[in-house]
């Protein structure tokens, strides 16, 4: 069956955040609000396919991991009928999905319940593409390294196989700027999710990451504020690429990354340089226990902004490398520091309930407690009003 849908995929529990980000982007880039999506599970949004919306989502969104164009759906549960159905659909399809001489790659995801193995599914979809294109007068070849289009086959909630083009050409979480990840780095798209959940407003919020590590949250804060575009080779292949500039080019948020380790700060600075924002972030050597609003206010004044309440946002350690005996004093220091920042908001992604227990005594209950997965680690995002 030929279908025509735009699918946006993110981490579990990010549907609402992704929908909100796409509204912000579409209203600015396209001067229109996207339609209400169909939600599948807790981390997928599905829209009627629109080239303009697909372009905007692929180029500008920072919270998803993938943006797909769903093209074909098959209830076949064996390879032979799957091949026959795909070839018939692709041959009858009038959409320009390839050019003569294009290289392609095919991957299978979540096909464990299909009657054949992953390699067999990939091979069948690849053969159907090559043969159907040939019947339409185009020669395709397999190019796993630099394909013009990446195709994805996956089983959906109905246990039907859906064939899509990956419009971003792979994981959107890998921005390409990491030079040194450091231990247990936060995934880039998840940093953008935290900023959205914490309602980061770059026009008025001062953003401080008191334990910035490799700098993921500060770097993402600047790019989210500016709505910086990314390159997407696949869109040009499909004929709906266009020039893209930052949607908020003049945005100048006050973003401060703090860490006690000078080598860590140097790595974060290198990452910011690789991300194209060498001077947009203030990197400050500071112990979380001694951080004060006055110190942050001085930095804000140096950057031309009057001191004002803002947002403390961080992904502190939570037990993969430290024991509870080591984490306890760290969380106590963090809680005591937060108490100094009256009128601010504080958000933390943590996989250890010890932080919530300590903050309950020192700060109170969080305004938001939301489960989020950081890689394969179960964690919660806490947002406190200080």
Write the layout of secondary structure elements.
Layout: E1 2-9, H1 15-29, E2 38-40, E3 44-48, H2 51-60, E4 66-74, H3 79-92, E5 103-109, H4 118-135, E6 141-142, E7 149-155, E8 161-166, H5 188-197, E9 206-209, H6 216-226, H7 233-238, E10 254-259, H8 262-274, E11 281-285, H9 293-302, E12 311-314, H10 324-340, E13 345-350, H11 353-362, E14 368-374, E15 377-385
Parallel strand pairs: 5-6, 5-7, 9-10, 9-12, 10-11, 12-13
Antiparallel strand pairs: 1-3, 1-4, 2-3, 4-8, 7-8, 13-15, 14-15
Features:
single chain; 386 residues; alpha/beta; VC0802-like; Rossmann fold; 2 domains; eight-stranded mixed sheet; seven-stranded mixed sheet; 11 helices; 15 strands; elongated
Summarize the structure.
It contains eleven helices and 15 strands. The chain is of the alpha/beta class.
Form type? elongated
The CATH architecture of the largest domain can be named as 3-Layer(aba) Sandwich
Instruction: Write the CATH homologous superfamily of the largest domain.
Output: Vaccinia Virus protein VP39
Count of helical regions:
11
Pick out the low-confidence regions: none
What is the number of beta strands? 15
Mean pLDDT: 93
Largest sheet: 8 strands, mixed
Characterize the structure shown.
By secondary structure, the chain is α/β, with parallel strands linked by helices. The protein has two domains: 2-166, VC0802-like; 188-385, Vaccinia Virus protein VP39 (Rossmann fold). The protein contains eleven helices and 15 strands. It has helices spanning 15-29, 51-60, 79-92, 118-135, 188-197, 216-226, 233-238, 262-274, 293-302, 324-340, 353-362; strands spanning 2-9, 38-40, 44-48, 66-74, 103-109, 141-142, 149-155, 161-166, 206-209, 254-259, 281-285, 311-314, 345-350, 368-374, 377-385. The strands form two sheets. It has an eight-stranded mixed beta sheet. Helix 3 runs parallel beside helix 4. The longest helix is centred in the first third of the chain and has 18 residues, at 118-135. The termini are far apart. 42% of the residues are buried.
